[in-house]
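Query structure, 102 tokens:
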């Protein structure tokens, strides 16, 4: 029992430094990983809300095309002259013209 008391007292001073270290690690992870990812997700969600007919887009599969029709949860994309595919709105990731300008 005496050994246990000595060990607990020896580690008592390290509790605050461990707590400070854990808070610092969480803060670093938040500002360098979590916050940028949340910002990116909000930008993509806003982009999907503002889709317009005639807009050039890129799908998650890497298919470039123009929006011909917008439905509730899907988008009709023309990928070639006369070739149209139906794509889920959640798989539209980028504006093709904005990507070309980068």
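Result returned for the query:
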């Amino acid at each position: 029992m005496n050994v246990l008391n000595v060990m607990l007292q020896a580690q008592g001073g390290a509790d605050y430094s461990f707590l400070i270290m854990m808070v610092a690690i969480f803060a670093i992870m938040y500002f360098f990983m979590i916050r940028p990812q949340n910002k990116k997700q909000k930008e993509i969600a806003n982009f999907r809300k503002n889709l317009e007919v005639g807009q050039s887009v890129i799908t998650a599969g890497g298919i470039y095309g123009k929006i011909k029709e917008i439905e509730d949860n899907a988008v009709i994309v023309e990928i070639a002259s006369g070739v149209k595919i139906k794509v889920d709105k959640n798989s539209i990731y980028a504006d093709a013209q904005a990507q070309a300008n980068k």
